[in-house]
């Protein structure tokens, strides 16, 4: 009997170095909600370690591009940005049926059905000439109960949905931590083309066994007549929207231009005074209050809604 | 896109379905319910709370735990109904249709013996009656509110408790899976018309365990116990001396430990104290899953070019390939046209060979018509009989089949010439190479008859046994034509010596029985165990000087009768018992 009990314990045991991430995960948007759900304001580069090249790319961005240019209509979020918004996620664990070892995690995001495989079997990343994809090529290793994921071979995409670019030379590191029924992923984007420092962000989810992810089928349709070679963009110095965020939020314009120093709290000591200070909040004021998901910039807080 | 449309899109893309919960994850078993029974294991003779019949009780009383050391049972896993009882750490994952994102199936993996089961969620029907039975059975699921109800059929024989209480292969398992937060509760209900008087209900629980890791469970058979060939450990009726241990140890009335439906109910405690006027609830009806009705002739693919045709008398094996068709047996004469039609759906090539497993008409009735339509390959220059190459399939059988079919049999005339084998062999075997595989025709001595052949398709890994092994009753021991119980047991052990199972005593070599569903080694092993135990009982009775009438009265097969017995028809239980009795000498050999 004791041998049986010992065997029962041995055949199934917690492995200190691994956690099961499988299941349905509902995103929690309390962190950076206005940026992630309604979307970032045009010209808001606060806290991003951009270089000048990235800043010009962002200043030139015209949001019409994603509706006018058919090649962008069905572009999904890349794996780094898909963590940020519309991030309902299902994770499956893929096991070798003979050894029962975990070979990979497979993730599926609801937005644009972004699927990704995180290989855990030690395989190398592909060669430099292999195709780049929206999800990239991801491998993972365990650091105790934290999964470190390294992704390469990403297609060009964006750091923020207001035109701030992320190049195809970037790599993406993640740290997955499960704590009970919560999942937190710390993401670190390293881009030698457009950033002077790594960009670190965190996202969290809660386990949701009632979740069902439906289809998100996208079909391009040319709805806006345009010339064949037209790509919407603002010529340098002509983007009329870049001062909006500074004016709306009473911030110094320079701060909204981003750069590595705006990442750090010390920046507040050297910040200029705003050109148009605000006495009170006028946009996204109740975001996150009492779980309120603000979808409109001027929606009143829950206690003031009709 | 405006913000409001965006929001609506967000909501639509992912939504809770009121009727469904995701059961995926790693689930650590909780043993607080019935811990002592599930982990150390049930005591011998403890049938408390089990609604068992007398037949089940005798099966359990006869059970000897040493049977688990037989090679055929060393790697036998818990079946689907018992797997949840322990060690039962569990992994569940779902399979999703990529196009529709609908759940096609849930898969479960249980720690003990690494059993995996598929619960089909796509509305597919259960297989027909003659499909193989497996340890995990065939499961379909449907959401009822937030509870997943699963129906499982096609289970191999198993056990209701690990102390020998049987669960038959006619049982249906109904389960209700309920997830409540991080806890999972399974309510399982066994409906067994053979061994239970009432449905048997149990509950099992798990807690979500994301740190759990279930290791593989490879099992390899090793013969570690020397025993005489063919021995099956068991206790003769009335001789199991361990049955009083449980009531003595726990100070219970012995009658209570014998189980039965009344012992399920709390009211039984009053009966235990001698109250006479206890009214127990009425027996609940047993559930029978709707099965795909099987009428007439049915063909199922076994493996490669090998098919099993049932419903034409005895089962017919069809081997179809580039060289033509080989049949093992030809069924009843009035089914021949239908048989030919089914063969035609599989192959347009001629029948080259017919192998008769024995002489009986339900296996040879189609010989004449089918052979006449066939074509033999060889003939030609060596014998100068080129006509041979054009007409008639070759009909192969053991010499004893030809001897008996070509002579009058009592008041029955000899079989028509066209039905007779054209190619008889004697000795232990005959080999062919056909359709790119070796085929060994094996002759077991004096089993069902004295002219039996079993056919082993070596590459396809399929054995056609004829009536040496059937799934629809006790074996017909045709004493008048040389059959015997010992020869039957030797033949079954010979089959078991030829098979190799794929995993945990399942699949691998498939066995096409003379009658009944497609089988594998475990089905043959159960059949062998049953006949060995019955043989031992009758031999013991004979040695004690009991007459046949006394043996019949003692009813030595009563624990197997609900599944295998017959009280009418051409082969009844009484006839079987008589054949065993008559076939046994003092030492158990004919």
List the helices and strands and how they pair.
The complex is a heterodimer of chains A (306) and B (590).
Chain A: H1 2-11, E1 12-14, E2 23-28, H2 33-36, H3 52-60, H4 65-68, H5 70-73, H6 79-82, E3 89-95, E4 102-109, E5 115-119, E6 137-143, E7 146-152, E8 157-158, E9 165-166, E10 171-179, E11 182-190, E12 199-207, E13 211-213, H7 244-249, H8 253-256, H9 267-270
Parallel strand pairs in A: 5-6
Antiparallel strand pairs in A: 2-3, 2-12, 3-4, 4-5, 6-7, 7-10, 8-9, 10-11, 11-12
Chain B: H1 3-13, E1 14-16, E2 25-30, H2 35-38, H3 54-62, H4 71-74, H5 80-83, E3 90-96, E4 103-110, E5 115-120, E6 138-144, E7 147-153, E8 158-159, E9 166-167, E10 172-180, E11 183-191, E12 200-208, E13 212-214, H6 245-250, H7 254-257, H8 268-272, E14 298-303, E15 306-310, E16 316-321, E17 324-328, H9 336-346, E18 351-355, H10 361-364, H11 367-373, E19 394-398, H12 399-405, E20 423-425, E21 429-434, E22 437-442, E23 454-457, E24 462-466, H13 485-498, E25 510-513, H14 521-543, H15 548-554, H16 561-564, H17 573-583
Q: What does this molecule look like?
A:
The complex is a heterodimer of chains A (306) and B (590). Chain A has 306 residues and is an alpha+beta fold. Chain A has a domain at 23-29 and 75-207: Beta Barrel (Lipocalin). In chain A, 16% of the residues lie in helices and 25% in strands. Residues 1-11 of chain A have low confidence and may be disordered. Chain B has 590 residues and is α+β, with helices and mostly antiparallel strands. The radius of gyration of chain B is 27 Å and the shape is globular.
């Amino acid at each position: 009997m004791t041998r049986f009990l010992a065997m029962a314990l041995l055949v199934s045991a917690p492995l200190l170095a691994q956690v099961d991430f499988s299941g349905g995960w509902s995103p929690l948007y309390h962190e950076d909600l206005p940026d992630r759900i309604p979307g970032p304001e045009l010209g808001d580069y606060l806290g991003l370690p951009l270089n000048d090249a990235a800043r010009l790319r962002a200043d030139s961005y015209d949001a019409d591009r994603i509706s006018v240019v058919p090649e962008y209509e069905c572009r999904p979020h890349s794996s780094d940005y898909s963590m940020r918004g519309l991030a309902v996620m299902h994770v499956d664990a893929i096991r070798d049926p003979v050894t029962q070892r975990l070979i990979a995690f497979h993730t599926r995001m609801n937005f644009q059905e972004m699927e990704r495989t995180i290989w855990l079997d030690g395989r190398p990343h592909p060669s430099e000439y292999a195709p780049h994809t929206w999800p990239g090529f991801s491998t993972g290793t365990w650091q105790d109960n934290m999964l470190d994921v390294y992704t390469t071979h990403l297609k060009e995409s964006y750091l923020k949905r207001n035109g701030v670019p992320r190049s195809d030379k970037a790599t993406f590191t993640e740290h997955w931590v499960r704590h009970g029924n919560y999942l937190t992923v710390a993401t670190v984007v390293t881009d030698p083309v457009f950033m002077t420092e790594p960009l670190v962000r965190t996202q969290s989810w809660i386990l949701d066994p009632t979740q069902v992810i439906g289809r998100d089928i996208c079909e391009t349709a040319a709805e806006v007549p345009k010339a064949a070679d037209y790509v919407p963009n603002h010529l340098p110095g002509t983007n009329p929207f870049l001062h909006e965020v500074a004016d709306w939020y009473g911030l110094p314009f320079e701060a909204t231009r981003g750069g590595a120093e705006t990442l750090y709290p010390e920046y507040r000591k050297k910040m200029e005074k705003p050109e148009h200070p605000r006495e009170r909040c006028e946009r996204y004021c109740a975001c996150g209050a009492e779980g309120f998901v603000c979808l409109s910039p001027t929606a009143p807080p829950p206690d003031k809604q009709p | 896109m405006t913000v409001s449309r965006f929001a609506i899109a967000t909501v639509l893309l992912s939504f809770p379905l009121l009727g469904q919960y995701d059961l995926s994850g790693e689930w650590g078993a909780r043993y607080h319910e019935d811990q002592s029974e599930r982990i150390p294991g049930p005591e011998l003779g403890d049938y408390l709370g089990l609604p068992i019949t007398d037949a089940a009780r005798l099966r359990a009383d006869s059970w000897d735990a040493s049977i688990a050391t037989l090679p055929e049972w060393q790697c036998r896993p818990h079946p689907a109904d018992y797997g949840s009882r322990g060690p039962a750490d569990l992994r569940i994952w779902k399979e999703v249709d990529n196009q529709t994102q609908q759940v096609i199936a849930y898969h479960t993996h249980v720690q003990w013996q690494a059993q995996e089961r598929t619960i089909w969620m796509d509305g597919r029907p259960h297989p027909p009656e003659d499909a193989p039975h497996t340890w995990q059975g065939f499961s379909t699921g449907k959401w009822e509110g937030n509870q997943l109800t699963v129906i499982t059929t096609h289970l191999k024989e198993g056990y209701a408790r690990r102390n020998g209480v049987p669960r038959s292969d006619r049982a249906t398992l109904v389960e209700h899976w309920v997830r409540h937060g991080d806890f999972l509760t399974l309510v399982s209900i066994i409906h067994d018309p053979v061994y239970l008087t009432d449905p048997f209900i149990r509950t099992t629980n798990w807690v979500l365990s994301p740190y759990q890791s279930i290791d593989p469970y490879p099992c390899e058979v090793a013969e570690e116990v020397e025993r005489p060939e063919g021995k099956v450990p068991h206790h003769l009726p009335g001789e199991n001396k361990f049955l009083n241990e449980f009531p003595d140890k726990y100070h219970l009335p012995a009658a209570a430990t014998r189980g039965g439906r009344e012992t399920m109910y709390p009211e039984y405690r009053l009966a235990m104290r001698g109250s006479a006027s206890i009214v127990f609830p009425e027996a609940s009806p047993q559930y029978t899953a709707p099965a795909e009705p099987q009428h007439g002739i049915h063909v199922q693919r076994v493996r490669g070019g090998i098919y099993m045709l049932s419903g034409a008398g005895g089962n017919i094996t069809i081997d179809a390939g580039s060289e033509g068709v080989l049949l093992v047996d030809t069924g009843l004469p009035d089914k021949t046209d239908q048989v030919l039609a089914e063969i035609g759906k599989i192959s347009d090539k001629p029948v080259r060979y017919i192998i008769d497993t024995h002489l009986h008409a339900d296996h040879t009735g189609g010989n004449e018509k089918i052979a006449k339509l066939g074509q033999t390959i060889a003939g030609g220059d060596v014998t100068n009989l080129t006509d041979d190459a054009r007409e008639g399939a070759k009909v192969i059988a053991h010499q004893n089949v030809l001897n008996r079919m070509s002579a009058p049999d009592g008041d029955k005339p000899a079989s028509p010439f066209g039905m007779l084998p054209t190619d008889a062999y004697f000795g232990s075997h005959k080999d062919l190479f056909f359709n790119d595989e070796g085929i060994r025709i094996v002759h077991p001595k004096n089993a069902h008859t004295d002219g039996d052949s079993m056919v082993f398709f070596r590459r396809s890994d399929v054995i056609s046994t004829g009536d040496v092994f059937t799934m629809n009753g006790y074996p017909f021991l045709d004493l008048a034509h040389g059959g015997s119980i010992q020869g039957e047991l030797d033949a079954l052990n010979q089959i078991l010596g030829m098979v190799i199972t794929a995993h945990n005593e399942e699949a691998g070599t498939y066995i096409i029985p003379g009658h009944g569903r497609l089988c594998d080694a475990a089905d043959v092993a159960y059949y062998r165990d049953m006949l060995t135990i019955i043989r031992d009982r009758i031999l013991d009775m004979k040695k004690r000087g009991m007459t046949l009438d006394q043996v019949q009265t003692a009813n030595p097969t009563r624990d197997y009768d609900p599944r295998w017995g017959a009280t009418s028809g051409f082969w009844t239980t009484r006839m079987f018992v008589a054949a065993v009795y008559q076939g046994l000498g003092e030492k158990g050999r004919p």
